[in-house]
Write a structure and sequence with these properties.
The complex is a heterodimer of chains A (226) and B (194). Chain A is mainly alpha-helical and 226 residues long. Chain A has 9 helices and 3 strands. Chain A has a 3-stranded antiparallel sheet. In chain A, helix 1 crosses helix 2, helix 1 packs across helix 3 and helix 2 packs across helix 3. About 24% of the residues of chain A have low confidence. Chain B has 2 domains: 102 residues, Rna Polymerase Sigma Factor, Chain: A, CATH 1.10.1740; 85 residues, Arc Repressor Mutant, subunit A (Orthogonal Bundle). In chain B, 78% of the residues lie in helices and 0% in strands. Chain B is built from 10 helices and no strands. In chain B, helix 2 crosses helix 4. The longest helix of chain B is centred in the last third of the chain and has 27 residues. The radius of gyration of chain B is 21 Å and the shape is globular. Classes of the chains: A mainly alpha (226), B mainly alpha (194). Chains A and B meet through helix 1, helix 2, helix 3 and helix 4 of A and helix 1, helix 2, helix 3, helix 7 and helix 8 of B.
Chain lengths: 226, 194
């Protein structure tokens, strides 16, 4: 265990001073990291190793080349990998540091705000409009509370009056007084209706919709009223 | 984990992600653009865009899937800019007066694949495949299930009816054996600057 790995091909002077052979445990850690199997202390150790040893990074590269080539021989061309990574390093050094996620959230909120958000007069107009809306709603509610009874009774009257008047008008024009009466007024008889009911007795009590239709034969009115 | 580490401010962790995915991303871009100079530029731009947008990466998809989308969008943007570039249009239209061979040469995908690089790539591929064939069955099966089938250690342990620790060991030994064969070739190809 922990035997030095074969580094014969990496003993060139081009290697950095910290480029030392990795033991088997370290290689296993890099292998596990490649598969996302490292956590906690093991992960920290592997990252430290990869950050400080260019040999470890070469091992990391090799592991992924092996995986890529196993999936497709097209990916065996690694001629420019090192140059590409060097260019990326330089580019990343010029990039600003990544900001913490909380700062990014605040920035997103700023981007989502309206374009005229910074203009004071727009804020004043918006506030005034909101205030007017509240006053209007309050006023209507206040009036509704004060005049609630009157309004309700008025609505009832307007709702019931046409219902009473229209049938009476229709009845008055199309029917004749049959002479039958009770204490509150005279009963009207419609001769045509009676004939129809006599012909269709099944409709005398209930309509086809099974709703009582007796009111058709027993409508009354008060002749003393105008 | 490497993404989280990058988000914590460790740009070296992002370099590891670049090493891991750059060949696949370059191949993807190469299928859309096919000009070797542009491929590397677009790949670099893709990784930089991904780096800048990394705080927005929520981990709902795999990192490569997310990176793949960025690469496709970056390639499309480059292609649109090329079409708008009058010098590019002039170059293409200027070829119409040339003979067929010249025309096709200029419009065919260019490549950095010289005979030497093609040979080197072929050697790497052969070394990997031969080393794979030389592995004991249990090591080869574990590596195939991991690299080609993309199974997790837990799934491989179930399929091979062995503990996860054994799977971990087998995959490591398989990779190590192949790496020893391929290492010198890769060192020759890529140089030693890591």
């Amino acid at each position: 265990m922990n035997k030095p790995h074969n580094t014969n091909s990496y003993s060139d002077n081009d290697f950095q001073a910290d480029q030392t052979a990795l033991n088997e445990q370290q290689l296993q850690q890099i292998n596990d990291l490649a598969d996302g199997q490292l956590h906690g202390e093991g992960f920290a150790n592997a990252m430290s190793l990869l950050n400080n040893s260019s040999y470890a990074r070469a091992v990391w590269h090799r592991l992924h080349v092996v995986g890529d080539v196993l999936r497709s021989n097209e990916l065996a061309n690694c001629q420019s990998d090192s140059d590409f990574i060097q260019r990326m390093k330089l580019s990343l050094q010029q990039e600003p540091a990544i900001q913490p996620i909380s700062v990014i959230t605040v920035q997103t909120k700023n981007i989502a705000s309206s374009a005229n958000d910074g203009i004071f007069i727009w804020k004043s107009v918006a506030g005034l409009a909101s205030l007017m809306g509240v006053i209007a709603v309050s006023w209507s509610l206040f009036n509704g509370t004060i005049n609630g009874g009157a309004v309700a009774s008025g609505e009832m009257a307007s709702a019931t009056a046409p219902a009473n008047q229209v049938p009476m008008a229709v009845v008055a024009s199309d029917t004749a007084v049959a002479g039958a009466s009770n204490g509150r007024g005279e009963m009207l008889r419609d001769a045509q209706l009676d004939a129809m009911i006599a012909a269709h007795k099944q409709l005398g009590g209930y309509s086809a919709l099974q709703a009582p239709s007796g009111f058709l034969r027993h409508a009354t009115f008060d002749k003393n009223r105008p | 984990m490497l993404v989280e580490r990058t988000l914590a401010g460790d740009s070296r962790a992002y370099e590891l992600l670049v090493i891991k995915y750059q060949r696949r991303i370059q191949r993807l871009i190469g299928r859309m653009v096919r000009d070797v100079d542009l491929i590397e530029d677009i790949a670099q731009e893709t990784f930089l865009r991904a780096y800048r947008a990394l705080p927005k990466f929520r981990g709902e998809a795999q990192f490569y899937t997310w990176l793949y989308r960025i690469a496709v969008n970056t390639s499309k943007k480059f292609l649109l800019e090329l079409k708008r570039d009058p010098t590019f249009v002039a170059n293409v239209s200027g070829n119409s007066d040339d003979d067929d061979e010249t025309f096709y040469t200029k419009n065919e995908p260019t490549s950095n694949e010289t005979p030497e690089t093609m040979l080197a790539a072929k050697e790497v591929a052969e070394a990997v495949n031969n080393a794979m064939l030389a592995l004991p069955d249990d090591l080869r099966q574990a590596l195939v299930l991991r690299e080609i089938e993309g199974l997790s250690y837990e799934e491989i342990a179930l399929m091979m009816a062995c503990p996860i620790g054994t799977v971990r060991s087998r995959i490591f030994r398989a990779r190590d054996a192949i790496s020893l064969k391929v290492g010198p070739l890769l060192e020759h190809q890529t140089g030693k600057r890591w």
